[in-house]
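Pasting as-is:
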Amino acid sequence: MKKSNLVLVLIGFIFLIVQQSKAQSKDKRANIIFIFADDWSYADLSAHGSTWIKTPHIDQMIKEGMDFADFTVDSPVCSPSRVAVMTGQFPARQSIHQHFQGWKAHEKRGMPDWMDPKGMSFPREFQKAGYVTAHFGKWHLGSAPDMPNEKAYGYDEYATFNGSKKINIAKAGSVGVDYAENFIKKNKDKPFFINLWLHEAHTAHYPLKKFMDEFNNLDEKQQVYASVIAEGDEAVGRIMKLLKELNLDENTLVVFSTDNGPEWAGTEKDKIHKPEKGDDDDGDDKGPVGLGKYYSVGETGGLKGQKRSLFAGGVRVPFVAKWPAVIPKGVENKTASVTAVDLLPTFFEAAGIKMPKDFKPDGESIMAALKGKSFERTKPIFWEWRGGDNFFFTWPTLGVRDGDYKLVVDVTGKKYELYDIKKDWKEQNNLAETNPKKVTELLNLVGDWKKTLPEKPNEDCFTAARNKESKTPKKDKVKKVKEKA
């Protein structure tokens, strides 16, 4: 071989090595999959003590990863809970404190009509860093015909209901997973982020026959509920299986959690669920008829409260993380106090993405805890839940946790309860009378936090119909009412 040809061959060989090295270096960035179920309680896992619900795939995830006992979401209902995850900030910073429904309801509640697309949305930051991003399943981050679509928040691909409505809600769990599996296969050689937000166990219930047959030994209510949970658990198993088949599991962080505590069981009249426009929790979605709240019999494991409550049963939910390259196996973490706004800074650190200089998250990264090291949070956790219209709120309305103590407060600030969470996990022993000093301290803390919140929602996040209505002079409104009369 001529010397010149040999030089060309060597140059080509070196070029291939460099390119291969670059590709391998890129592939080392962690993939992240966040699986968010709906209306599950902390005790809706067989690994957490349920005697009639079976969750073998999540139980296996716990054996191979880390199970956090002290995880809370930042709202006891869907939409604000999800906003906290997406933004890394408490949802009250966008005046979002109930579920998205219809603009007239939003107006009464002092809410915008959708999450601000110009604010923080962590998938957008992943896009900027070279990740491919996707969102499959539930959306529920806004409710209006002219609201921004999922692309505005940083997604390359999406298929949702309660959003752009491309998924049949009756098949939301399985179909959402179908999309996620196809996305993973297509992007297995790229770093990717996926939000997989399951429909289960929100009403309406659409239990699959194979699970109904499996749980035919239970009573009618438990049979339906166990079947619905089993479908959600199967979704987790399908994702885990695919990651192993594609040799992606070692360097993929998978997190499973749920948006709030379990729905309150209904009566006989709630056996059938007929979604209507403006339906509770379903926004403007008109899905097919399914089974109703009569079958919503999730157990809290003795925790006080359920969905729509700031007590433990409404905000303490399962949180399981698996990442074989980083997270030690089979660890039950009982000491780390973790909350939903911590996910954004944690995902950023896991992906090696820098926080934007002008953005301050309310959460903090829990990577130390994921690595099996001690984690002591330095920031307080705040909750605001406006559980009624026209500012007549349900009890409790506000909450704060700082260190071991949690205080819940009513809208007047005169009714409150204090709990030592480390000693009283189920919040059964009110310490307000015996520890007035701590009560005053936390009342001041939550009061100061309230002062940092906006007085009204961002009008850029109003639907056109609402903007038109709000710009109509009051006297014209009165005239129209008189003419109608």
